[in-house]
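Worked example
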Amino acid sequence: MEEKLKKIREEAIAAMEAAEDLAQLNDVRVAYLGKKGELTAVLKGMKDVEPKDRPAVGQLVNETRTAIEEKLEETKKGMEAKALEKRLKEEVIDVTLPARKNRVGHAHPNSIALDEVERIFVGMGYEVIEGPEVEYDYYNFEALNIPENHPAKDEQDTFYINQNIVLRTQTSPVQVRVMEQGKLPIRMIAPGRVFRSDEVDATHSPSFHQIEGLVIDKNITFADLKGTLEEFAKQLFGAETKVKFRPHHFPFTEPSAEVDVTCFKCGGKGCRFCKGEGWIEILGCGMVHPHVLEMSGIDPKEYTGFAFGVGLERIALLKYEIDDMRLLYENDDRFLKQF
């Protein structure tokens, strides 16, 4: 894997050096960093890496991405400078004409936040796994310890295609599908779009995104969960961030908790951003319920695990201090170009 990453890095740098203009440079960026790019393919292949080697490989992937991005930015600035110099020599400037701006697109706030979360967990040895958005009722509810007529079904306001098929209300079904494969241990996150019948307002939408994590192994305890989420919060919001776990109830975990972090605006002193409380709720978590393990064919006497889930939009809203979720989807260029 190290040789493969080294080869990708060398090929990307060579392609950038061979690029003659910004369009070709952008093609190089897409070829190596895009959704179907070379480096993304390596990330998706993390499932084939030995669990003990995943942290080291994840770090190598991050280092390779950083090197390619830095070289891209350096090459882009060099091309822009040369183009400007050439144009100044060849063109006669008409100062009465309005200026033209070279507008280049960039990542959406959701994509920026997702990339950062994925980098954090890949660096901890997790793999990123996706699953279907149209899901069976069994995987979305029953396999997660939410049987028929359970109140949680009403709370999630599900979109039903028919009696047995739904638009998933969470990405937990991806975790169930992975557990059923029986390939242990498991360290994964499952990002993706989910759907709930909510009215559109500043904090709700019928379509949004979640990132759910799962770890299954021998001798996993709540202490492992706390340590993992504390490290995640510190990398995402800053080294001084503290976390607080409050008891809660989720059907698929026991014990369960909601996690708060100290407000990164006031450091926990209390301000308008955190409504004077000093703490901000960011996610829910808990130890995987033994019945959920049993339904997936895993012996709860031999294996334990933890799970957590966080809303991607919530991360983006908090990190970039956006006060209205609708701004993320209105495609207003005045808003998007700030990121």
